Amino acid sequence: MINLPRGTQDLLPEQTQKWQYVEEQFKALCHTYNYKEIRTPIFEHTELFQRGVGDTTDIVQKEMYTFKDRGDRSLTLRPEGTASVVRAFVQHKMFGNPTQPTKLFYIGPMFRYERPQQGRMRQFVQFGVEALGSADPAIDAEVMALAMNLYQTLGLKSLKLVVNSLGDNESRANHREALVNHFEPHAHELCSDCQLRLQKNPLRILDCKKDKDHPSMKTAPSILDHLNNYSKTYFEQVKAYLDQMGIEYVVDQNLVRGLDYYNHTAFEIMSNAEGFGSITTLSGGGRFNGLVEDLGGPETPGIGFALSVERLLMALEAESVILPIDEALDCYFVALGEKAEKKAVELVYTLRNAGIQVDKDYQGKKFKAQFKAADRLKAKYVVILGDEELENNVVNVKEMSTGKQEQVKIDEIDSTLKRFVQGGIS
RNA sequence: GCGGUCGUGGCGAAGUGGUUAACGCACCGGAUUGUGGUUCCGGCAUACGUGGGUUCGAUCCCCACCGGUCGCCCCA
Fold first, then answer.
1. pLDDT truncated to tens, each residue of chain A (426 aa)?
2. For labelling alongside A223, which of A50, A155, A163, A180 has CA 20 to 30 A away?
């Protein structure tokens, strides 16, 4: 027997119904916020992620699914969505479209080569949105609102929106210098990872879990104290919009996102729900002014976020949210006897052509067993056809919830059953 | 990449160095030759992750590998 590859999963019908439901909700929400769907390939040139996501990131350094194709090109299964969306934005010159900002959403699998565990698969699915072409703080707030809106619409309660500002280039450079000056004297006391980070990306020392209790952490320079006027005002405005919309959040100056392209607004949505395991992050996002330029486009600001569908469903599970999924079958067709069974095939076809959801037995089950099957499938109606009915050109239709039964002429079977399904048997 | 833990029929789950490896659920049939549930009776299955080793004999003991799961790192 061949099993599925490590870190992947099969979604069986019981699961796919939930997936379809949350996808529909997400799409509907994107529609109300006026984001349009974009579909990009699931693999790209490796270079896109090296340049887009950043060479120093864990994603690029140790988590990419990279392979050579037959033409000796280095390709990579996408580890995240933003780089591809920006690539497409640049490639198709969407910056020239009459309506800006360009508001896009995507749904699809992402791949990271990691040891699988709760809420972390090698193939996982993200919903994401990107708004390109606006540096209005209101759109930062809009993106966060959309994200929170989805979770709340689905019924989640234990949510925490965490925001921070990473500032613009100037602010970051100042902060970086302050960080290096601050940590340099303690470098030998920090973990080996942090010693490397000090060289490459000192910002990330701030969210190191090993060194979080080191005394130098408490006194570390905060990015918020190094924001220049523009960055500072920008962040204030983003928060003001959130306040105005009544969206609760907390500011965490140590919130540092793992991808290089972020600046200004950075945010994460976490779940506090019991039994959610060690994973708490449901989604993350932020502003990426400069990325479009890095990937060969004109100077274009952008912001977006992505959420994991697996974690979304875990959170729903953890909070015991029941999704409104209708599992009931409209109609089950029970036939008895050779002639009736033949006729049943025709009548089932007739009913289906009328748009009624109907199924029948294909296992040669006895009459009683067919009823059991109908019950198990939660059939609303059972149509019964035996020799007696056949002779009189009728069927018996039974409403399973009430036990009411009515005789229906075969000629009128489709219209009558349609009426029953919509409004009950009488 | 590192560490803990686990691996017995479709699912859940006992168990033992030695003739036919419990049980429960599910499924099928009957009691009830055309009406769902319950009950009772009967039936059912290529099951000890893979490969080595120890042994007269291994599902059990040892080793390796594979896989699941949880945690670390990091993230969605």
1. 778 888 998 888 888 889 999 999 999 999 999 999 999 999 999 999 999 888 878 888 889 999 999 999 999 999 999 999 999 999 999 999 999 999 999 999 999 998 888 889 999 999 999 999 999 999 999 999 999 999 999 999 989 999 999 999 899 888 888 888 888 888 777 777 777 777 777 887 777 767 766 777 778 888 899 999 999 999 999 999 999 999 999 999 888 877 888 899 999 999 988 767 677 899 999 999 999 999 999 999 999 999 999 999 999 988 888 888 888 899 999 998 888 999 999 999 999 999 999 999 988 888 888 998 898 888 999 999 998 899 999 999 999 988 889 999 999 999 999 999 998 887
2. A50
Sequence spans of domains, chain A? 13-168+228-318, 329-423
A124: Cβ under 7 Å from strand B? yes
Contact predicate A383/A396, CB 8 Å: yes
- The tokens for A122 are 């090698």
Domain covering A329-423: architecture: 3-Layer(aba) Sandwich (3.40)
Closest nt by CA–C1' to A281: B76
Residues with Cβ within 8 Å of A314's Cβ and at least 6 positions away in sequence, in order, are A118, A119, A276, A277, A279
Q: Which fold has domain A13-168+228-318?
A: BirA Bifunctional Protein; domain 2 (3.30.930)
**Complex-level ipTM:** 0.84
Q: Decide: residue A296, CB within 10 A, 0-12 exposed, 13-18 middle, 19+ buried.
A: exposed
Q: Which residues of chain A between 55 and 74 are close to nucleic strand B, CB under 7 A?
A: 57-59
CA of A234 to C1' of B34 (A): 76
| DSSP state at residue A219 | T
